[in-house]
Amino acid sequence: MNLVNEIYVRKSCRKYFDDEIDMDLIEKAISNAKPLNEGIDYYYEIFTKDEVNIRTRWNAPYYLALYSEKKDNYLENIGFVFQQVCLYLQSIGIGSCWVGMGSLKVKNPDFLILIAFGKSDKMTRELSDFKRKKLEDISDFEDERLIPAQLAPSAINSQPWYFKHAGDGFDVFQVKQNILKRQVLKKWNPIDVGIALAHLYVSNEDNFEFEMKDDVESFKGYRYCGSVKF
Ligand SMILES: Cc1cc2nc3c(=O)[nH]c(=O)nc-3n(C[C@H](O)[C@H](O)[C@H](O)COP(=O)(O)O)c2cc1C
Predict the structure, then answer these.
(1) Residue 1 pLDDT > 70, yes or no?
(2) Would you tell me which of 94, 136, 177, 217 could form a disulfide with 181, CB atoms 3.0–4.6 Å apart?
(3) CATH number for the domain that contains residue 10
């Protein structure tokens, strides 16, 4: 399955048809997705729109509710796994959008975030329509290998990722937001970083490696999230 092309045409989908969907396909895609950290338990449920509380002005016929146990990197891991699923859905005509502004009707302490999904014909666009930071602003120097990460979706398009060249790979950091934005984005930004790493993984499936080094320090305004090679 080649999902690379989806990265360059995808957009968050906010207009859906009500068609039914073969949920077996979704379940298969989720079980085929690669985790960032093998040791973290996560799970999901599929809801219809009436079964969740949505605070967006648009809605979708279905929502994936994502849950995880809380261990190091669990938020990055959820972003990493489920962005692979979103790219796959797009490849079979199903649009999706991560939804921070939503919650469950029945509370669950493991709950992290929703993803809206459904059949759509409004989920692609031209590369020139992406609004993203410049490559040189997401890394210590411009590197075209980072384009898939540059194009990743993020909460209110905050693009909180920063890549520092280290050996033949990169140390990955999350940019800390100012105090006002931090309130809103503190849970979502690590998910965003995982989403960006998913785009790097999908683009380099055979040689992508992730590790937490223990000798990399966070520096002022940046939180160390791990290191990648590909
Ligand atoms: C963690 C996360 C949470 C998001 N929450 C919402 C949301 O609550 N409502 C919404 O309309 N879009 C939401 N989005 C979509 C972003 O607004 C979108 O990814 C960003 O503006 C970039 O646009 P694009 O995905 O079309 O490239 C979210 C995205 C992420 C990654």
Answers:
(1) no
(2) 177
(3) 3.40.109.10
